[in-house]
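Researcher: Here's a chain I'd like modeled. Treat it as a single chain, no partners, no ligands.
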Amino acid sequence: MEFEHTRGRIFDIQRYSIHDGSGIRTIVFLKGCVLRCRWCCNPESQSYDIETRMIDGKPVLVGRDVTVAQVMETVERDRPYYRRSGGGLTLSGGESLCQPVFARDLLHASKHVGIGTAMESMGCAPWEVIEDILPYLDQYLLDIKHMNGEKHKAFTGRSNELMLENARRIAASGQTELIIRVPVIPTFNDTPAEIESIARFAQSLPGVQRIHLLPYHRLGQDKYTQLGRDYTLPDILPPENDTMQLLQQTVRLSTGLDCRIGG
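Model: Modeled as a single isolated chain. Structure tokens:
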């Protein structure tokens, strides 16, 4: 197939994941992102360039160029696990839509061989890019970070109008299961009022039944040092379990959506 020769740039493939989509997943992490979220746990994903991380005093290249066929060789190894669990391929990043042709052709290749597909994305791309991908996508895991455009821009580098409009269009298309995901970040969006505002937006989207609250963690903080960069939220701590349960209850009581903690 012609799409098997499409080339793209990735920085990791993670097998046997139980996050980022239904069942057991193989997650392909694509290079490149248009946002600069201050809490990002994958800073090596932000630049499309191949970079160097210093790990234990040794330089390690981050990023490699591959074809769709090469990625699918890894994805297809775990077909029995997908079949038993309802899993499949998930694209993540970064923002997968920054490599639209590669993302589309990876999803196409997976569907062509009968493997389910999902994509974790902020929806920050022209609608035509998303529209081109939807026929090959079973689950769209769409991040909605905040309903206030100015606060969104202060913490991510961009306002949220495009993402919200794309969320409406994806839902209206009815072509994929749309799941809203919210990274819960102290000082940014961890109040009941802010989470309820996002939940009510999710409730307004046709067909949306699920919302995932993803508690902030510090697992990616060391990567900034390894990349020679500063981490701009050094004093922020992960939310307490009681806080996450309160936010979960807020979503359930205000909207009736199926809300869970974690992805």
